[in-house]
């Protein structure tokens, strides 16, 4: 994994602290330095997010004590999907598996669910995550996983737009995958605790159209945007739309 890309470590202007057990002080200090956050402050409840470092475990809790932890092997977030259809999966078709697409750039890794699934489908994936807390959780999960298909995953910490501008013609991929956060309806059902924390961490992708516009300038075969089934296109120009029951994959053919 490569974390050489850097940017300002801000989490939607929310306050963060790092809490550790005595045997984890050295590792915790590294995380605190990365986040520019205090380690074991006197009043931890003054902070909205708390990053806990306890032995080989790393997890986040918010002010409501909701927890987010990423573990690809434990699988409680469906990181090991059984019975998938391989190249017949909609996401595989959208990314151009039939056209020889193999190497994918995932611009919004999030909790890694789609990225990990892509590796199960045989794709080689490079991932970008802009949230510093999510990046740390992902980095830890990739370091601990025993899944062979994830051993060569390359994870970068960066804003998607900045990454695209800084790395054009430097990184070779066949297709780009983008799953921007979509504003949820006010009447939608409250999701489980992980999703609540996740949404607070990443916020909305207000620059999603700008990111897509930049992605379309890369020398790739296609750019795929994941959308809620009934949501409008992020930008005009969708060549193919692969529709599932609740989401669809809008494909923009580039080359």
UniProtKB/TrEMBL annotation:
Binding site for S-adenosyl-L-methionine: 129-130, 179
Pfam families reported for this sequence: SAM_MT
GO MF entry, a single one: rRNA (guanine-N2-)-methyltransferase activity
SUPFAM superfamilies cross-referenced by the UniProt entry: S-adenosyl-L-methionine-dependent methyltransferases
Keywords: Cytoplasm, Methyltransferase, rRNA processing, S-adenosyl-L-methionine, Transferase
Location(s), subcellular: Cytoplasm
Primary location: cytoplasm
E.C. numbers: 2.1.1.242
Enzyme class label: transferase
PANTHER family (alphabetical): RIBOSOMAL RNA SMALL SUBUNIT METHYLTRANSFERASE J
Role, per record: Specifically methylates the guanosine in position 1516 of 16S rRNA.
Family: Belongs to the methyltransferase superfamily. RsmJ family.
Protein name: Ribosomal RNA small subunit methyltransferase J
Organism encoding this protein: Bdellovibrio bacteriovorus
């Amino acid at each position: 994994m490569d974390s050489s890309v850097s940017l300002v470590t801000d989490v939607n202007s929310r306050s963060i602290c790092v809490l550790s057990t005595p045997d984890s002080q050295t590792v915790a200090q590294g995380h605190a330095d990365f986040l520019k956050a205090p380690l074991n402050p006197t009043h931890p409840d003054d902070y909205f997010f708390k990053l806990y470092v306890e032995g080989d475990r790393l997890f986040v809790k918010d002010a409501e004590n909701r927890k987010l932890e990423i573990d690809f092997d434990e699988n409680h977030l469906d990181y090991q999907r059984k019975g998938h259809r391989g190249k017949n999966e909609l996401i595989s078709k959208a990314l151009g598996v039939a056209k020889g697409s193999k190497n994918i750039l995932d611009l919004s890794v999030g909790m890694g669910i789609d990225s990990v699934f892509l590796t199960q489908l045989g794709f080689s994936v490079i991932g970008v995550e802009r949230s510093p807390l999510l990046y740390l959780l992902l980095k830890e999960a990739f370091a601990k996983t025993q899944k062979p298909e994830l051993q060569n995953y390359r994870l970068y910490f960066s804003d998607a737009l900045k990454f695209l501008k800084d790395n054009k013609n430097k990184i070779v991929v066949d297709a780009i995958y983008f799953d921007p956060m979509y504003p949820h309806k006010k009447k939608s059902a409250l999701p489980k605790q992980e999703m609540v924390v996740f949404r607070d961490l990443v916020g909305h992708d207000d620059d999603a159209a700008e990111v897509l516009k930049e992605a379309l300038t890369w020398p790739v075969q296609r750019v795929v945007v994941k959308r809620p089934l009934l949501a409008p296109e992020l930008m005009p120009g969708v060549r193919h739309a692969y529709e599932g029951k609740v989401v669809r994959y809008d494909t923009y053919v580039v080359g």
